[in-house]
Write a structure and sequence with these properties.
single chain; about 650 residues; alpha/beta; 8-stranded parallel barrel; 16 helices; 29 strands; about 20% strand; disordered N terminus; binds calcium ion
């Protein structure tokens, strides 16, 4: 994420963070008020509705019931003090279709807040909604998950709901909506497959959506969604879907049902869904329910009393506090079970604490161990000791949680922060060693060839994502002196390295057709026309799209690219002699049960052809990249000439 904020409404609280002489940040507070029940929020049945709120520093609490999303309250119910700082209310009538909020008195002030546990909300998420969740299930909704075994078998594709079908040529009926992303059979220019149909054709296994929880009204106003665009890294209601992706944001059940329909459709296409979750900060610390209900508790503070701001969004959520951890863990578990999500991508995961991440892993394993976890393990300054942060550096303490490998990303295309610096693929010398670190998924391969990962399923290899310039736009900066055809080749070389490396490969939507945002480096609130997937361009770059599809098929055909243990990588992957600015390796002896006895892979980042000596294992056949080899003969041995920016894979059957 990368979001800037210009609004900061401070509310004067006196010093509500000290209650009865106890700081809400103290361990004693956590020990005294940790509530371990599972009934926070609203529990609805047709006969009654039960509410439990955690607000230990409040002196009074009231439940407000509304009959519309914007009307005056119809009833105010004083809540009863319960155990561990909780407050309860129960109403014996059918409240389906009503809305609710809480009001708490902190010191002398009353604050009205949405229930942070609300699972359904009205338009723009300003009130919780009381609904019957069983009525949100689309037809055919069941408990079956698409079978999946190892994270390294995944090919992740990151896309924004609106981007996928917003384009006027997307061929979708519900453009920019959950239902649009669920449309199959759509066609664009030259009858190119679009939307979900396009993703399926590529061979993707996991679709990762940018935020789909309810995000800020300042970012996108659900009553007028087309007036603005946002990625959505602005959390408002963590447990309810965003309304601007629904065909009707006013009816609370609609967004839930339509998101479930999208997930179900993707499952029917034998793909899986990863949710991008942003628990590290909220959109506006002071306006969020967290601050209104228990002032100060949910955030980290500096010594001087100001909010910690590693997120760059004005606040850092204090995941290490017991009720915050509980909130995050239960939220993830809720999405995984209610929506049958297959993976979670943690924004700025390095701001979270290790214990929280491991607890999420444990709880997800109870649902289905094939649910994958990945995140941005960046080491960011926040008010939490580095020993406890869920960073790349501490990856060894978080088995089966993957981190984005920014090392390979910047090695291939050049630094994200130094715009004109080229990388391995775009002509910078001396980076072979760093490319190898990515090829082995960042595990300890040799003493001096290692990165942060302990096992390959902790490494997400990629070259572009929603943040920063797209690879195409970066190449426009680093390689403007090269003609477009050459830049296309460099682009494809980067993707080929990602998809033939160990670990978990990750593609940014449109990378297959050399997506451009026309030089927009941070398009988080840029207009739809900058962000949307351009299906005309997809048709125009059909050769390149096909290149990616073939690479994914290659990866699926060969288990050797998907070794599940670092020990297997050390045993079966051998780097071979290759000229400068190229990297070659073999995957030997039926690695990971591969059908091939050996595979030989070479990536040539030179602007000129190179000659290599093939390992003398017998006869090699071309498995991938025949367009990069000037040879009519299909059987290869001895020396081989590989064209500029070529990636080739050869196969030795061992017969
Ligand atoms: Ca919203």
């Amino acid at each position: 994420m990368a979001v800037q904020k210009d609004i900061n409404y401070a509310i004067s609280f006196g010093d509500p963070r000290i209650v009865n002489g106890l700081s809400v940040h103290s361990k004693a507070f956590d020990d005294t008020y940790f509530y371990d029940g599972d009934d926070l929020g609203c529990d609805y049945t047709a006969n009654r509705a039960f509410f439990r709120l955690w607000a230990p520093t409040a002196s009074q609490a009231t439940l407000l019931i509304y009959d519309t999303w914007d009307g005056a309250s119809v009833v105010e119910v004083a809540m009863k003090r319960g155990e561990k700082g909780t407050w309860t209310a129960i109403l014996y009538r059918d409240l389906k279709g009503y809305f609710y909020t809480y009001k708490v008195q902190i010191a002398e002030q009353w604050h009205e807040a949405v229930d942070p546990y609300a699972r359904a909300v009205g338009v723009n998420g300003d009130r919780g909604a009381i609904i019957d969740m069983s009525e949100t299930n689309p037809q055919g909704w069941n408990d079956e998950r698409v079978p999946f075994s190892a994270p390294v078998d995944a090919v992740i594709y990151e896309v924004h709901v609106r981007d996928l079908t917003a384009h006027s040529y997307s061929g979708a009926e519900h453009r920019g909506k959950f239902l649009g992303a669920a449309e199959m059979g759509t066609r664009g220019p030259n009858l190119v497959r679009t939307g979900l149909e396009h993703i399926k054709e590529l061979g993707i296994t996991h679709i990762q959506f940018l935020p789909i929880y309810d995000y800020s009204t300042d970012s996108v106003d659900e009553t007028n969604p087309d007036a603005s665009y946002n990625w959505g890294y602005d959390p408002k209601n963590y447990n309810a879907p965003e309304g601007s992706y629904a065909t009707d944001p006013y009816t609370p059940a609609t967004r839930i049902k339509e998101l479930k329909t999208l997930i179900q459709t993707i499952h029917e296409q034998e793909m899986r869904v990863i949710m991008d979750v942003v628990y590290n900060h909220v959109y506006d610390a002071y306006r969020h329910s967290f601050m209104k209900l228990v002032p100060g508790y949910y955030y980290r503070y500096r010594q001087d009393g100001s909010l910690s701001n590693g997120s760059g969004c004005g606040n850092d959520v204090a995941s290490e506090r017991k009720m915050v951890r509980k909130f995050i863990v239960e939220s993830v578990v809720y999405w995984a079970s209610e929506y049958k999500l297959d993976g979670f991508r943690f924004d700025l995961m390095g701001l979270h604490d290790i214990e929280t991440m491991n607890e999420i892993r444990t709880r997800l394993d109870e649902i289905d161990p094939s649910i994958i976890m990945l995140g941005e393990g960046w080491d960011i300054p926040t008010e939490l000791d580095g020993r406890y942060k869920a960073t790349q550096h501490n990856a060894w303490q978080m088995p089966r949680i993957a981190h984005f490998n920014d090392g390979l990303r910047d090695t291939l295309k050049g630094s994200t922060f130094n715009l004109r610096e080229p990388g391995f693929a775009s002509g910078r010398s001396g980076l072979e060693h760093d490319v190898k670190r990515g090829i082995v998924a960042g595990v300890q391969y040799q003493e001096h060839l290692r990165s942060y990962a302990h096992e390959p399923d902790q490494c997400v290899n990629y070259v572009e994502a929603h943040d920063n310039h797209t690879l195409w736009d970066k190449l426009s900066l680093t390689s403007a002196h090269l003609d477009e055809m050459t830049r296309r080749k460099i682009h494809m070389l980067c993707s080929a390295i990602v998809l033939t490396s160990q670990g978990i490969p990750f593609l940014h939507a449109g990378q297959e057709f050399m997506r451009t945002k026309h030089g927009d480096e941070n398009s988080y609130k840029s207009p739809t026309h900058i962000n949307q997937m351009d299906w005309q361009r997809c048709a125009q770059f059909s050769r390149e799209v096909n290149f990616i599809r073939r690479l994914i098929q290659l990866r699926k055909n060969h288990a050797a690219f998907r070794m599940r243990k670092a020990s297997l990588i050390r045993e079966h992957l051998v780097f071979e002699q290759a000229p400068a600015n190229s990297v070659a390796f073999t995957l030997r002896n039926h690695a990971n049960g591969d059908v091939a006895k050996d595979l030989y892979v070479l990536h040539n980042a030179n602007w000129h052809p190179i000659e290599v000596q093939l390992p003398h294992f017998g006869l090699w056949r071309i498995e991938f990249g025949e367009e990069f080899i000037e040879q009519d003969d299909l059987i290869l041995h001895g020396t081989l000439k590989v064209l500029p920016y070529g990636s080739i894979v050869l196969l030795n059957r061992g017969d």
